[in-house]
Specification:
heterodimer; A: mainly alpha; 11 helices; globular; B: mainly alpha; 13 helices; about 70% helix; ABC-2 family transporter protein (chain A)
C-alpha cells in the first residue's frame, strides 16, 4: 500500500513537471501536426498506387499516421524522457545516491516515466489526432470498448518503451560515453516501431521478424488494436505487449543487479 | 544591442571578421572532437545510419510500388539526395543556432554579448558537430546513385544548375535555422516549432510535389520558399512540369531567392537580438 502511494506520488510529480512547460508543449503539438500532414500525403500517394497495402485501406493507413504522431512523445519513440537524465546520473556518479535511497531504482524511474507519458499523451497526443481526424477521413472506431483496449495497449506500449530505454541507459555503467548507444536506441525505435512505415508494409521475412521484435509493441500493436487489424485479435496483441514488458523489465532488473554489484561508480 | 547602427565602411570588415571568428571557434571544436577519434567515428556512423532510415523507408515503399505520385525511384532518390545534401550542409554549418532558447534560459547568452565577436558567429560555431557530415555523405551517395541511374544529358548548364541548387538550398535552410533561432528570443521554450520547418522541410522535399496538396505546395513556394531548395530546379532537370504551372524562369531563381532570404533573415536576427532581455528574475 505504501509502495503504491509512493510510486503514485512519483508519477504525479513526473506529470506536473512536464505540464509546466506549456509553450514547449504547444510547439510540440505544432511540429507533430506538420509531420502528420507530410506523412499523411505520402501515405495517400502510396495507398493510391497499392490499395490495401499491408492489409490497411487508405483511411486505416491515415489513422496509423496520426496515431503515430499522437504517441511519438508519449511513448518516447524518438528516445528521451528519463533516459538522458538517468544516463547522466550514471555518468557523473549521482546514481550512487539513488542507490542509497530506500526505494527501488527501476520502479522509481518507471513511475516517473509513466507520469511524463500520461501528460505527453494528453498534452501532445490528443490535439494532433483531433486535427488529423478533422482534415482526413480516419477509421476511428465508435465502440468505447475498442478505445478502452487501445488505452490499455498505449499504457503497455509506454511500459515496453520504458523497459527498452532502461536497458540502454544501464549500459552506461560499462560504457562511459553512451551517446552512441542512445543514437542506436533511437534508430531501432524509429524504424522497428512502425513510425516511418507500418511494419505490415515491410516485405517478406524481414517484415515478419520486425513484427516480432519488442519495438513493434510500442506503436504497431496499439495502432492495430485501435484499427482492429491485429492478426489473432486485440487480445493477442495485448498479450504480446504484456509478454515483452515482463521479459524486458526482468532483464532490466537482472542487468541492474549486475551493474550495481560489479561496477565501481565513477569518481569513487 | 551589440551591433548598434552599422557604419557603411565597417560592414564588410565586420562580416569578414564574423566569418573568421566562426572559423576559429569551429577549428577549436573540431580539434576537441578529434581527441576522441573512436567516439567520433561511432557518432559519424550513427548519424549516417539515422539519416539513412528515411531513404530505407522510401526503398521499402518502392519494393511495393513502381511509382509514387508519378515519380520513379531514381527520380525520388534525386529529390531525396538534393534535399538531404542541402539540409545537411546548413545543419553542419548553422544547426547549433537552434540553441538560442536554452542559452537565454540558462543565462549564457550574456557571455556571448560581452565578447568582441558577432553573436551569430559564436552561436553557430558553438558545439560545432562534425558528425553531421554523416547526413551529407549519405545524401551525396544517394544523389550520386540517382544521377547514374537517371541517364540525363549532363550539359555544363545542367551541372551548374545542380550545384547552384544545392548551395542555394543550403542557404535557404540556413536562413530557416537562423530565423528559428531569432524566433526564440521572443518565444524561448518554443524551439521545437522550427523542427517543423527544418526536419519537416527536408522530409517534405524528399517526395515529389505531386504527392502533396496544392495549398501545401503553394505555402512552401511563396510563404516559406522551400520549393526553391530543390523542387523547382529539380523538376526542370528531370524534365517534369511543376504542379502549380509557375513561369519556367522561376526554376533558375533559387540563388536570388536565397539572397533575399539572407537579407530578411539578417534583419529579423538583428531585431531578435535587440529584443533580448536577460533572465535573472
Amino acid at each position: 500500500m505504501h509502495l503504491l502511494r509512493l510510486n503514485f506520488a512519483v508519477a504525479l510529480s513526473g506529470f506536473r513537471r512536464y505540464a509546466t512547460y506549456r509553450v514547449a508543449t504547444a510547439a510540440g503539438v505544432f511540429t507533430n501536426t506538420v509531420f502528420g500532414f507530410i506523412l499523411a500525403y505520402t501515405f495517400i500517394a502510396l495507398w493510391h498506387e497499392r490499395p490495401h497495402l499491408g492489409g490497411y485501406d487508405q483511411s486505416q493507413a491515415l489513422t496509423f499516421v496520426w496515431i503515430g504522431q499522437a504517441m511519438l512523445a508519449g511513448a518516447a519513440l524518438m528516445g528521451g524522457g528519463f533516459q538522458d537524465e538517468f544516463h547522466e546520473r550514471i555518468r557523473n556518479g549521482d546514481v550512487a545516491i539513488d542507490l542509497y535511497r530506500p526505494v527501488d531504482l527501476q520502479l522509481w524511474w518507471l513511475a516517473s516515466d509513466l507520469g511524463r507519458a500520461a501528460f505527453q499523451l494528453l498534452g501532445r497526443g490528443v490535439a494532433p489526432l483531433a486535427v488529423g481526424a478533422l482534415a482526413f477521413d480516419l477509421a476511428l472506431p465508435s465502440s468505447p470498448w475498442v478505445w478502452l483496449r487501445f488505452l490499455l495497449a498505449v499504457w503497455l506500449a509506454v511500459v515496453v518503451s520504458f523497459a527498452l530505454r532502461y536497458l540502454f541507459a544501464l549500459c552506461g555503467f560499462w560504457l562511459l560515453d553512451a551517446t552512441g548507444l542512445n543514437a542506436l536506441s533511437t534508430l531501432l525505435s524509429l524504424f522497428f516501431s512502425g513510425m516511418l512505415l507500418p511494419l505490415t508494409v515491410f516485405p517478406g521475412a524481414f517484415g515478419e521478424v520486425a513484427r516480432l521484435l519488442p519495438w513493434s509493441a510500442t506503436l504497431q500493436v496499439p495502432a492495430d488494436v485501435l484499427l482492429g487489424t491485429h492478426p489473432g485479435g486485440s487480445a493477442a496483441g495485448l498479450a504480446f505487449q504484456a509478454g515483452w514488458a515482463l521479459v524486458l523489465l526482468a532483464a532490466g532488473r537482472a542487468l541492474q543487479t549486475a551493474a550495481t554489484r560489479k561496477v565501481v561508480v565513477q569518481g569513487g | 544591442m551589440a551591433d548598434g547602427t552599422p557604419r557603411p565602411r565597417a560592414v564588410l570588415g565586420d562580416a569578414v571578421w564574423g566569418v573568421r571568428a566562426y572559423g576559429f571557434i569551429v577549428a577549436m571544436w573540431v580539434r576537441s572532437t578529434m581527441a576522441y577519434r573512436a567516439s567520433f567515428a561511432m557518432m559519424l556512423a550513427a548519424n549516417f545510419a539515422t539519416t539513412f532510415l528515411d531513404f530505407a523507408a522510401i526503398m521499402i515503399m518502392f519494393s511495393q510500388v513502381d511509382a509514387l505520385g508519378g515519380f520513379t525511384l531514381p527520380e525520388v532518390a534525386f529529390l531525396y539526395g538534393t534535399s538531404c545534401v542541402a539540409f545537411g550542409l546548413s545543419d553542419l554549418l548553422l544547426g547549433t543556432a537552434e540553441r538560442v532558447g536554452r542559452r537565454v534560459r540558462d543565462g549564457t547568452m550574456d557571455v556571448l554579448l560581452t565578447r568582441p565577436v558577432p553573436v551569430l558567429s559564436q552561436l553557430a560555431a558553438d558545439r560545432f558537430a562534425l558528425r553531421r557530415l554523416g547526413r551529407i555523405i549519405q545524401g551525396s551517395l544517394v544523389l550520386g546513385w540517382a544521377v547514374l541511374r537517371l541517364d540525363l544529358d549532363w550539359t555544363p548548364g545542367r551541372v551548374a544548375l545542380l550545384f547552384s541548387m544545392v548551395l542555394s538550398g543550403a542557404a535557404i535552410f540556413g536562413c530557416v535555422f537562423v530565423l528559428g533561432g531569432a524566433f526564440q528570443f521572443w518565444a524561448q521554450d518554443a524551439s521545437e516549432v522550427q523542427n517543423a520547418f527544418t526536419y519537416g522541410g527536408t522530409t517534405l522535399l524528399q517526395y515529389p510535389p505531386t504527392v502533396f496538396g496544392k495549398e501545401l505546395v503553394r505555402g512552401v513556394t511563396f510563404v516559406v520558399p522551400l520549393a526553391f531548395v530543390n523542387w523547382l530546379p529539380a523538376l526542370r532537370l528531370l524534365g517534369r512540369d511543376d504542379p502549380l504551372g509557375l513561369p519556367g524562369g522561376l526554376d533558375f531563381a533559387s540563388p536570388a531567392v536565397a539572397l533575399l532570404c539572407c537579407a530578411v533573415t539578417g534583419l529579423v536576427w538583428r531585431a531578435g537580438l535587440r529584443a533580448y532581455r536577460s533572465t535573472g528574475s
